[in-house]
Design the sequence.
């Protein structure tokens, strides 16, 4: 899976770099959104060895922060990436022990909450001040509703712990990337 994902990222990154030379920041922004959308459409997983039906291959968290969207993708093989809608991000940071631990907890909690997700075929970015989760399986992409940060921070919200764990992964990635 890592080799497949690395090859997929390399192809997209190469396309983005060549476009960037011609068009600047817009190509970088488009490139990171291509990565996000490809994961949600399950493109990096096509042709991989069969897995148990219903296996969660990635948990994706889209979080609108006022200047754009941060997308966290935690893959079943331990790979973890963050894509920024403004362009750029952190790719393949799952080799760091702190990121591995945080991402594993995030994926485990998402699997536990699977009943809160419904099938989706359209993957718009969340509106200003909102967040959404996705579960990418071998045969479908499921998504949660869209929630405000205040809703997710409420003690009784069923996805509140998942939102906190997503923030823990983002923090671990940032600290590991220093």
Sequence:
């Amino acid at each position: 899976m890592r080799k497949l994902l690395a090859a997929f990222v390399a192809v997209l990154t190469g396309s983005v770099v060549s476009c960037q030379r011609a068009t600047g920041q817009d190509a970088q922004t488009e490139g990171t959104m291509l990565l996000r959308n490809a994961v949600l459409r399950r493109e990096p997983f096509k042709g991989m060895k069969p897995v148990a039906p219903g296996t969660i291959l990635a948990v994706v968290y889209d979080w609108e922060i006022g200047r754009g969207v941060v997308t966290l993708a935690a893959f079943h093989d331990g790979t973890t990436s963050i894509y920024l809608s403004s362009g750029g991000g952190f790719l393949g940071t799952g080799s760091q022990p702190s990121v591995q631990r945080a991402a594993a907890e995030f994926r485990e909690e998402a699997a536990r909450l699977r009943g809160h997700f419904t099938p989706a075929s359209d993957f718009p970015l969340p509106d200003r001040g909102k967040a959404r989760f996705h579960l990418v399986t071998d045969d479908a992409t499921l998504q949660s509703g869209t929630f405000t940060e205040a809703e997710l921070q409420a003690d009784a919200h069923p996805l509140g712990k998942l939102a906190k764990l997503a923030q823990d992964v983002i923090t671990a990635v940032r600290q590991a990337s220093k």
